[in-house]
Structure formats: structure tokens, C-alpha cells
UniProtKB/TrEMBL annotation:
Organism name: Muntiacus reevesi (Reeves' muntjac)
Any one biological process term the GO annotation gives: steroid metabolic process
Highest taxon above the source species: Eukaryota
InterPro entries (alphabetical): NAD(P)-bd_dom_sf, SDR_fam
Residues of the signal peptide: 1-17
A molecular function (GO) term: oxidoreductase activity
Species lineage: Eukaryota, Metazoa, Chordata, Craniata, Vertebrata
Gene3D superfamilies: NAD(P)-binding Rossmann-like Domain (3.40.50.720)
Pfam family, one: adh_short
Protein's name in the database: Dehydrogenase/reductase SDR family member 9
Keywords: Oxidoreductase, Signal
Length: 319
């Protein structure tokens, strides 16, 4: 009995692995649109999918980013300048893409553009500190999706939203985690809405990666700038030693981030080309072994582990 049970499990594992390896055909006939292609995940994805034979339309924020990308790719790849927070810019880009893809529609939409914003305790911040990451990471993503969706529905294609482990666990104050939590909610509702149209919606949750977005030096500079403008009361509660140690801790994150950006692009690739794509992808060792498992744990355990890493305040009773 035990032998047959073991054999069944092995067979199921084999079939599951085989199913995941099945790929779609006619990649060279398909168009994909990727946001945030100046650097990081988007830039590598644009170059990778261009080499695979896709018709890549890469959205860049800057002219310099667009020029550099075109210099490294084939004539098949096109770029478009796009600020995802500008509704008129998004509408013009969608119309331009529509003219490019024609009746084929858009096979893949990869919503990758995003920013970190300020990472600091919530009581240091104003509403404006939350606004920019929410505008880019959430409303920008929704705006691009809604404008491109008719083209994706025409192709019965794929929508891939790049979220973050910050959408599963809030590891710091600021607008980044709230924006990513909201992306997760939008992703789930969109996935269910698009099911009837044959459109598959997937979410990628990268851990901590070495990109311009997560540059610890820049994050430390922003945090220090906020500190300098805080009221004397809050500075007394936290203390000078807090800001010094917290900045050192922030800069120290560079030593354990993932450096291989292809781990995220591989998730994009599977979500785009697999006959049976997954609904969620975790990218990076830290995401798979720590952040995602911890997100399923009781809140008391989450708080215990995350608060262990927090710098101690000088005088929290001075209120």
C-alpha cells in the first residue's frame, strides 16, 4: 500500500512538472508591453524578451533610458516615453500601441514601473510622503491596465503585475507597502474579472533585489532629510542614536539583497509563455524562505520577528 502511494506521489510530481514546462507557440507573432524599462527588472525583461523573438514595446520614463535600450536590442523592439501618472500620456501610448499591434492585440502587459518613496516611521511623515508611491505604484498601474486591457482581451493574453513582498508584509512606514497591498487587491479582482475573457492575470512578488528602486544609499538620504525637518518632540522620542543606527542598518541591507535580476524575469517569462501559468510568483531566496512564509504566520509572530530588527527608541514615553 505504501509503495503504491509513493508511486502515485512520484507520478503526480512528474505530471505537475511536465505541465509547468508546456509552452505556447508562435512567440514571434506576439506583442508585449512593459513599463519601467529604463533600468532594473523592466530593462532586463525588455532585452530578454526581444532576444526570444517577441515584439517588445518598452515604456521608458526618460529619453536617455529609451536611447540606451534601443542601442542594445534589435530593430523589432520599439520604445515609448511614458509617465504612468499622466493620464493623457497613458491614453496616447495606448492608442500608439493599438496602431502597432493591429488585429493581433496585445499578448502580454507587464506592469513593472514603480518607486520606493520614503521609508521612515509613519509618525515622521505627511500625507504627501505617501502620495507619490501610491500614484506611481497603484494608480499608474491601474491606469495603464485599464487603457491596455481591450488590446489584451483581443489577444486573450496575459497581464502580469509586479508587486512585492512589501504587499504581503509591511516592513517599513511610508507609501510603498500600502501601494503594494493595494496592487495585490487590484490584481486579485482583475484576475477573476478577466477569467471569462480567457485573459490570465498573474502577480510577481520579488524579495529585496539590488536595483535603483531599492538603493540603500538613496533610501538613507531620504530618511535623513525627513529627520532634519521633524519637530523637537519627535526627535526627543526617537533620539539622535536612533537615526544614526537606523541609517547604518538601512545601508547594511546592501549585503544581503538578491543581485540576480533574472530571477524576476524568469517569473515573467513563465507567466507569459507557459500554457499553464501560475497566479502568483515569489522571486528571490528571501521571498521564498522568509517573507512569504512569514506572511502566513500569526500577527504576533510577524511582529516579534520584524520588531527584533528595529532600532530601540531613546524615550518613547516623552509624549
Amino acid at each position: 500500500m505504501l509503495f503504491w502511494l509513493l508511486a502515485l506521489l512520484i507520478l503526480c510530481g512528474f505530471l505537475w512538472n511536465y505541465k509547468r514546462q508546456l509552452k505556447i507557440a508562435n512567440i514571434t507573432d506576439k506583442y508585449i508591453f512593459i513599463t519601467g524599462c529604463d533600468t532594473g527588472f523592466g530593462n532586463l525583461a525588455a532585452r530578454t524578451f526581444d532576444k526570444k523573438g517577441f515584439h517588445v514595446i518598452a515604456a521608458c520614463l526618460t529619453e536617455s533610458g529609451s536611447t540606451a535600450l534601443k542601442a542594445e536590442t534589435s530593430e523589432r523592439l520599439h520604445t515609448v516615453l511614458l509617465d504612468v501618472t499622466d493620464p493623457e500620456n497613458v491614453k496616447r501610448a495606448a492608442q500608439w500601441v493599438k496602431n502597432q499591434v493591429g488585429e493581433k492585440g496585445l499578448w502580454g502587459l507587464i506592469n513593472n514601473a514603480g518607486i520606493l518613496g520614503v521609508l521612515a516611521p509613519n509618525d515622521w511623515l505627511t500625507v504627501d510622503d505617501y502620495r507619490e508611491p501610491v500614484e506611481v505604484n497603484l494608480f499608474g498601474l491601474i491606469s495603464v491596465t485599464l487603457n491596455m486591457l481591450p488590446l489584451v482581451k483581443k489577444a486573450r493574453g496575459r497581464v502580469i503585475n509586479v508587486s512585492s513582498i512589501g504587499g504581503r508584509l509591511a516592513f517599513g512606514g511610508g507609501g510603498y507597502s500600502p501601494s503594494k497591498y493595494a496592487v495585490e487587491g487590484f490584481n486579485d479582482s482583475l484576475r477573476r474579472d478577466m477569467k471569462a475573457f480567457g485573459v490570465h492575470v498573474a502577480c510577481i512578488e520579488p524579495g529585496l533585489f539590488k536595483t535603483n528602486l531599492s538603493d540603500p544609499e538613496k533610501a538613507a538620504e531620504k530618511k535623513l532629510a525627513i529627520w532634519k525637518h521633524l519637530s523637537p518632540d519627535i526627535k526627543q522620542q526617537y533620539g539622535e542614536s536612533y537615526i544614526k543606527k537606523s541609517l547604518e542598518q538601512l545601508k547594511g541591507t546592501a549585503s544581503f539583497v538578491n543581485v540576480d535580476l533574472s530571477l524576476v524575469v524568469e517569473c515573467m517569462d513563465h507567466a507569459l509563455t507557459s500554457v499553464f501559468p501560475k497566479t502568483r510568483y515569489a522571486a528571490g531566496k528571501d521571498a521564498k524562505t522568509f517573507w512569504i512564509p512569514l506572511s502566513h504566520m500569526p500577527a504576533v509572530l510577524q511582529d516579534f520577528l520584524l520588531l527584533k530588527q528595529k532600532v530601540e527608541l531613546a524615550n518613547p514615553k516623552a509624549v
